[in-house]
Structure formats: structure tokens, C-alpha cells
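DATA SHEET
Item: assembly model
Revision: 1
Owner: S.N.
Input lines:
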Amino acid sequence: MSGRPAILFVCLGNICRSPLAEAAFRLAAERAGLDVAVDSAGTGSWHVGEPPDPRAVAVARAHGLDIADYRGRQVEPADFARFDHVVALDHANLSRLRALRPEGAQARLSLLLDHVPGRAGEAVADPYYGGPEGFDTTWADVTSGARALVRRIAEGG
Ligand code: 4NP
């Protein structure tokens, strides 16, 4: 882990929340002039190799971002060496990551909304089983988290 900061966003399926977090973070970092490596992954394996959920693609597109080429992958132990920050979207995935993290790994683990003042400990709710409006909430949450995390990394944290 040297050079530019590397950040991995992790949800369950890697087709709804974490791809949106990845896209929002890429945009926020670009706007801040921050050079970063960014990826996303799921703790589950159901959607490996699949594109994001069409509702996630649509909400990203509504905000000017194209995530249709993203593909699902499952988080793996080597990710804890590749990334400086491994950022979970909710508590269940944070617990899975803690269990998966190799002894002595340097990557910092957090919840995305821990980085947002006043929202520490909050989860980004899973929109998968709900209607399309849930994805607007997801977008708002991941955008807040992404901007706050960019600020923190830009300040050296
Ligand atoms: P994500 O949403 O974790 O935000 O990508 C889900 C996607 C798929 C499933 C659950 C949540 N699933 O059960 O297949």
C-alpha cells in the first residue's frame, strides 16, 4: 500500500449499494482533485460477474454516471492488503469483513456513514427488495458518505 490511497466499498451482493458508493466516490474524488484507486465487492457470491441491478444503473445515470460496465465480484482476504480503507455499507457486512480480515492486515475497516458527521454507526439500508424509490435514498446516503470520506482522505486520514 504505497502511492495513491486505495478504497474498497463492500455490500452484500455488489450490485446495488457498493457499486453506487464506488461511483459516487470516484466522482467526489475527481471533483476534489484526489488521485485514488477505487473498487467495490460483495461479501456474497450470488452476483459474481453480473452487472449492477438495473435500478442502480438507472439512479447512477440520473446523476450523470455510467456504471453499466461494472461487474460483481466477491471480497477476498488479499483485499485487506490491497486497500487502505475497506468500507462496509452496513453492519452485517462489517461483521463479515471482520471475520475475513487476515491477522495483522493494515486496511482500516469502517462503515461508510461513520465518516459523515452525526451519522456514525448508521447503515446504508439494503434497497434490493424494495421499490425504485429506495435507490434514491441509497444514492443520497452513498453521496454523503463518499464526500465525507474524500474530505477525510484529502486531510490525510
Ligand atoms: P446489495 O443489495 O448488497 O446492495 O448489492 C443486494 C443484492 C442482492 C441480494 C441482496 C442484497 N441478494 O440477496 O441477492
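QC remark: Strands lie at 6-11, 37-42, 85-88, 108-111.
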